[in-house]
Write a structure and sequence with these properties.
By secondary structure, this protein is of the alpha+beta class. The protein has helices at 55-68, 78-88, 98-112, 120-128, 164-187, 204-207, 218-241, 244-257, 264-271, 280-289, 299-309, 314-317, 319-330, 336-348, 358-369, 371-374, 379-387, 391-397; strands spanning 8-14, 17-22, 28-32, 40-42, 146-152, 155-161.
């Protein structure tokens, strides 16, 4: 580009001179190949005005391309990248749409994808040479995940992927926990337990091999057990709290607590398949009126307020809200209650109680599962009510005081 704003493209070079041709007209030009010589000579005048370069648009396209192809965020949504860069470069938004940016970033990402390897050695070569981003983790700062080829009996059979940084952090945490336990044992003068395990014999098929199985030290055994417990807890927590029933219950609770879900369309989306059981218009009106009579922080606040202040008219004035609260309190959030019931069934329905009816079994299951509520029951009042129902019981058991 010259000082007037006209742009040129290189044609060829000869005798320390570079021949150029203009972008939008037949004009040609010559410049010196020497960097320090700052001159240009054209053979004719341009037949158009110089094109105005949109500098903010150039910066916006460059920042979107850089953000969309950075290592670690190749899987990030292009819409989020585009919105963030538009906020940072608002002047370049006029001449650059999201569809243009999406097509450009997709082309750039496709060019950066490594070729499909045919063998394991080709994959290792790709990860070692030009595509280090694929050999590293997504954490910040990234750590190397690809380590080396795995060979057995002179043949390449696989690739070793290992995150040494995560292992070192885990070892640090284990050392801290072990030091804390040893310190507390010394403070409370605790003696180690005699936990001598039976020495396992090496299988015959491994006794005469070149690499017999090694025995772990006590520290390594503790470390193995600790990480096994942690992995089990993480998997169980994820399984418990990522159930679809719990997510649906959270949506129903947000209808009462969160003001953003009180929009008519949001109510329909949250209720999902249960919208036929509710009058959406009436529920919308009652939810708008609800904050003016009670300060909402949780569902228990709404229940207590309706029970104490509007006990006589809650079924008519807040009919849809009452129906929604009953649904939230009765719908199972997860499978934990059912699993607890099945576990208790084996303890209650024994061989000595094989003739128990279904009604009695259901009542006993309720009392057994909900022990916290059963412990609060006054047995004297129940016995007094049981005896007072018939005259025969009164004559047999007498009065309870």
């Amino acid at each position: 580009m010259d000082n007037l704003g006209y742009r040129y493209y290189k044609n060829n070079s000869r005798n320390n001179k570079v021949q150029l041709f203009a972008e939008f007209c037949p004009t040609t030009a010559i410049i010196s190949a020497v960097i320090n010589e700052n001159w240009i000579r054209t053979n004719r005048n341009h037949n158009h005005y110089p094109q105005v370069v949109d500098i903010p648009l150039v910066h916006l396209r460059r920042s979107i391309g850089k953000s969309g192809t950075s290592s670690g965020i190749m899987s990030k949504s292009l819409r989020n990248i585009y919105n963030n860069e538009i906020i940072a470069n608002p002047n370049g938004e006029k001449n650059n749409t999201f569809l243009q940016s999406q097509a450009s970033v997709q082309r750039m990402r496709h060019c950066r994808h490594p070729p499909n390897p045919d063998t394991i050695k080709e994959l290792a070569g790709i990860l070692n040479e030009h595509y280090m981003a694929y050999a590293s983790t997504l954490q910040r700062p990234p750590s190397r995940f690809f380590q080396q080829l795995f060979e057995a009996e002179g043949e390449t059979v696989g690739i070793v992927f290992l995150n040494f940084d995560a292992i070192e952090k885990s070892n640090e945490y284990f050392e801290k926990i072990l030091n804390t336990v040893n310190l507390n044992a010394e403070i409370y003068e605790l003696e180690p337990l005699d936990d001598t395990k039976r020495i396992k014999k090496t299988p015959k098929r491994l006794q005469y091999t070149s690499n017999p199985p090694t025995k772990l030290s006590p520290i390594c055994e503790l470390k193995k057990d600790m990480f096994e417990i942690i992995d089990y807890l993480i998997n169980e927590i994820d399984r418990r709290f990522n159930q679809q029933g719990l997510k649906n219950l959270v949506k129903l609770e947000h209808i009462l607590v969160d003001q953003n879900t009180r929009i008519h369309q949001e109510l329909t989306n949250c209720l999902n398949n249960m919208s036929e059981d509710f009058d959406i218009n009436k529920l919308h009106a009652q939810l708008i009126m609800l904050p003016s009579i009670v300060s909402i922080t949780s569902i228990s606040d709404i229940i207590n307020h309706l029970r104490n202040e509007y006990s006589n008219v809650k079924d008519s004035l807040f009919s849809e809200i009452t129906k929604l609260i009953k649904l939230i309190l009765t719908i199972p959030a997860s499978a934990a209650t059912a699993e607890c019931s099945f576990s208790a069934l084996r303890r209650l329905k024994t061989y000595l109680r094989s003739t128990m009816t279904q009604k009695r079994l259901t009542h006993m299951m309720i009392l057994h599962v909900h022990k916290s509520m059963t412990a609060k029951i006054d047995l004297k009042l129940i016995a007094k009510e049981f005896v007072s129902r018939t005259s025969e019981r009164k004559s047999t058991f007498g009065n309870f005081y």
